[in-house]
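ARCHIVE CARD
CATEGORY: sequence design from structure
SOURCE FIELD: tokenized fold
FIELD CONTENT:
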């Protein structure tokens, strides 16, 4: 019967960051008589997510998981791509609405503030809403 032998080793690695081109760490093996051997780890000693292994077997140690996976940290959310005409149309609609609201407020000021001035404001906004075309 074989006696099982344990390996006393550990790794020291850098904290997870967004830079996926660099990786530094070291593998430290504590042998007999308190001898410590260390081996440097770099980018060539890493496997990325969804790596397909072409050899027989490999012994690995997972260092980063979940949100700490370097590829997830480096990926940015996709920006929304909108055509320039849409941005101009949105700006035009905002300007027209601002003009409509300002004109309604000016009409209330000219008429004089009453007890229910906010209902008059809504009435003016609805009456003059034909300023903003529905196609925008």
């Amino acid at each position: 019967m074989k006696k099982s032998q344990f390996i006393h080793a550990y790794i020291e690695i850098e904290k997870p960051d967004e830079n996926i081109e660099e990786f530094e760490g070291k593998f430290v093996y504590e042998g007999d008589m308190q001898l410590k051997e260390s081996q440097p780890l770099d980018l060539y000693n890493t496997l990325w997510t969804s790596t397909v292994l072409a050899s027989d077997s490999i012994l690995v140690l997972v260092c980063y998981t979940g949100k700490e996976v370097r590829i997830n940290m480096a990926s940015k959310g996709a920006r929304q791509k909108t055509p320039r005409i849409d941005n101009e149309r949105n700006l035009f609609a905002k300007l027209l609405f601002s003009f409509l609201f300002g004109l309604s407020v000016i009409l209330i000021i000219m008429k004089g503030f009453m007890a229910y001035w906010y209902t008059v404001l809504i009435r003016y906004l609805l009456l003059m809403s034909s300023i903003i075309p529905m196609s925008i």
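CARD ANNOTATION: The helical segments are 70-74, 84-111, 117-127. The chain has two domains: 9-74, 84-131.
SHELF: design records, drawer C
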